[in-house]
Amino acid sequence: MPNNLLEKYDLTKFQYRINWEITNICNFRCNYCINPQTESKNKERNFTTEEILRFFDSTKKQWLILITGGEPFMYPNFTEVCQALTQTHSLQITTNLSSPNIYQFADSINPSKIFILSASYHYTERNRLGQTDDFISKCKYLKGKGFPVLVNYVAHPDTMDRMESDLMMFTDLGIETFVLLLRGKVNNKIYPDAYTKKEFEMIEKYLLDVDTERKAAFNNLNFYSHFCDAGKSYLFMDSLGNISRCSTIQNRFGNLFDNNFHLNDNAEPCTVKNCNDVYCGLAAVKDKKATKFKMWLSRKL
Q1: How far apart are CA 33 and CA 99, in angstroms?
Q2: Phi/psi of residue 102, nearest 5 degrees
Q3: pLDDT digit string (tens) for 189-219?
Q4: Mean pLDDT lowest for which of 11-15, 62-66, 155-159?
Q5: Would you state the torsion angle of the CA atoms of residues 261, 267, 270, 274, taken in this order, to the nearest 10 degrees?
Q6: Strand ranges (E), 144-199
Q7: Which residues 6+ apart lie within 8 Å of 114 measured at CB?
Q8: Which of 15, 16, 17, 180 is the most buried (most CB within 10 A)?
Q9: Does domain 3-218 have CATH number 3.20.20.70?
Q10: Contacts 24+ apart (CB under 8 A), 270-274
């Protein structure tokens, strides 16, 4: 069951975690993407492998680096970057597996240093491009090499009638799966509101956590006033190298090239009413809440 995946892939196994949105560039044009293709390559800063490694090693900590995009494999020398980072750190990578470099990656990276390889199966885009078999072949190759492949499947209205059979196909290949709720406008309907009751009942069987996914999809994942390790042991870094407390609270903690990077000494209370970091947020948030005075001070900072 999908819920067991939360126990198997427990982010708190790693003391220090950073969510790195390595690039905004993607070669797919999914009409439901939450990161619209408005960024141009000249707004990206491509760091050398040496610069990236120097930054992480300078922290004197071992990180779980959660690499997202855009499409990470469009980053220059991405496999080389992964090779360097996995000498000391662990990676979680979310990718659409479209790059031909997937095979090079599989042949050269130690799979024990990959916490999760989250393979995004965008059937509508794959079908448009005639690349559905390509995705399956790469999943099988990575799985055969010992990588922890986890297929994520967006519950798109145009694929609802085939979703369960698609998921079963991957299960039969020994590949674990989970479903993501669609967020955005498709076919002139706003999702997730537009799902029918029957569709929701089917989708919920494959969500990682029903309550969390519902709250996140409807912008109601609220940890306000709870103390959180974001900024202390969990960070967010954008494609320009700007480092902030988390993807929700993007106050500057430094930059990849700066020498003034810092971590908070203590957990600080969350000051927003909806957490965009979802499972990273869940892994960082604490039960303890701040006093009203502490919240007033936090909002002033």
Answers
A1: 19
A2: -55, -40
A3: 999 999 999 999 999 999 999 999 999 989 9
A4: 155-159
A5: 80
A6: 149-154, 176-180, 184-186, 189-191
A7: 86, 90, 91, 92, 93, 147, 148
A8: 17
A9: yes
A10: 270/223, 270/224, 270/225, 270/226, 270/227, 270/228, 270/230, 271/224, 271/295, 271/298, 271/299, 272/224, 272/248, 273/222, 273/224, 274/219, 274/220, 274/221, 274/222, 274/248
Which position has the token pair 């406008």?
A: 185
Structure tokens at 275: 């957490």
Q: Which residues contact 56 (CB under 8 A, 6 or more apart)?
A: 63, 65, 85, 88, 89
Question: Is the whole model's pTM more than 0.90, yes or no?
Answer: yes
- Which of 166, 186, 19 has the alpha carbon at shortest distance from 92? 19
Instruction: Provide the token pair at 80.
Output: 């080389």
pLDDT for res 257: 78
Mean pLDDT of 21-28: 89
Domain assignments of the chain as residue spans, ordered by start? 3-218
ω into residue 36 within 30 of 0, thus cis? Answer: no
Over residues 96-122, the pLDDT tens digits come to 999 999 999 999 999 999 999 999 999
Q: Which two tokens stand for residue 87?
A: 């000498």
At which residue do the structure tokens 């031909």 appear?
Answer: 100
